[in-house]
Amino acid sequence: MKGDGIPDFHVASEVGALRRVLLHRPDLSLQRLTPSNRHRLLFDEVLWVRRAREDHDAFADVLRERGTEVLYLGDLLSETLDDPAARDWVLSERLSEAQYGSFHGELLRALGGMESAQLAEHLIGGLTVAELPFRPTGLWAAAADETDFVLPPLPNHLFARDPSAWIYGGVMISAMAHPARWRETVHLKAVYRFHPRFANADFHTWLDGEAHGPVASTIEGGDVLVVGNGTVLVGLSERTDGHAVDLLARRLFEKNAARRVIAVRLPRVRAYMHLDTVMTMVDRDAFCVFPEVVDRMKAWSLRPEVDDGGALGVQVTEESSLFDALADALDLDRVRVLTTGGDQYQAEREQWDDGNNLLTLEPGVVVAYDRNVDTNARLQRAGIEVITIPGSELGRGRGGARCMSCPIARDGL
Predict the structure, then answer these.
(1) Do residues 105 and 170 share a domain?
(2) Residues 28 and 138 reside in one and the same domain
(3) CB of 218 within 8 A of CB of 177?
(4) Which of 181, 186, 287, 412 is deepest in the core (most CB within 10 A)?
(5) What are the mean pLDDT values of the chain's consecutive 10-residue runs (413 residues total)?
(6) pTM attached to this predicted model
(7) What is the maximum span of the chain, computed from C-alpha positions, in angstroms?
(8) Is residue 340 part of a domain?
(9) Is there a single domain that holds both residue 197 and residue 339?
């Protein structure tokens, strides 16, 4: 707890005043995104990095002007690596002999000897053969080009929402669906475990980023909405499955952190990769949605259930209406549903351009890309204050203001 009386790490809603947030500023990793590797790295386009950085700085400025403390992942990781125990842990997690063969030991020594800021830059931005301070040995090295990556870049760190999500009094470390993003969670684990700001703080770890059960289960932060009043909304998407949601619900119920999880099923297609690409909360009683998808989603409520032997289980009940379930969970007569703007064609375009992927700063105040003119106008007519940020370059990464932010302290409803 800081002197301002606000818990350092507690997210109690989607729309309460946003106090602290984690971002990742566009960096070396995006400079290494190319037409030949973009699909493998989960990008549809190659970004103009200088302009993307300017746009991102404008986004961060909006947050600060509204009283939100902005933390940067790169800075936190660098500060974490100042701790020798943290550095050893990160390197042991990121590098294995199976990956690097005959030059594994030399690589460990070389990275271990770097300054913290340089090491953090390469852990996120990648490291090429030409950038190694030694000449690697072995067959892989003999066949490699100077521009081949020894450490692959992690450009998806830009989307800070996904590898971890704060839910009430704890954090979920995501089990990421695609190999291109698996290494991101190592950095978040290190920060939350070793950084002085987090190391001695009082919070739970709901999930630890590992796959659980007989089937590899995955869950990502873009599918998790902390709607408030003890309720969490989770999407079953191409990147989040039911096994992981069951486990998350059980962990929340065990600590009485939540009383209900509402799960919804999305089409498993890239256009709707996470729930927050088609649905975000913009006021205490209002959601902005892409109706073509949301109107067809099935919903289930998960609640804690104790069996005859006293063991805690999870009861699953299908809901007749998602919005009726949300109204009930939020103790409202009904919720307002504000849809993507424009005609059928424009609505589809604006959903693709993250028109529904909004970050709420306080009740009825959202951050949106300026390019989604029709959706923004519809929100404004409904009484929502829309603060626009440039989206010409950042938007090409397929992630809006919500995707790019990980709230770590937010008020309740």
Answers:
(1) no
(2) no
(3) yes
(4) 287
(5) 64 98 97 95 93 97 98 98 98 93 94 97 97 92 94 97 97 94 96 96 93 72 97 96 95 97 91 94 98 96 87 93 98 98 94 95 98 97 98 90 98 95
(6) 0.94
(7) 68
(8) yes
(9) yes
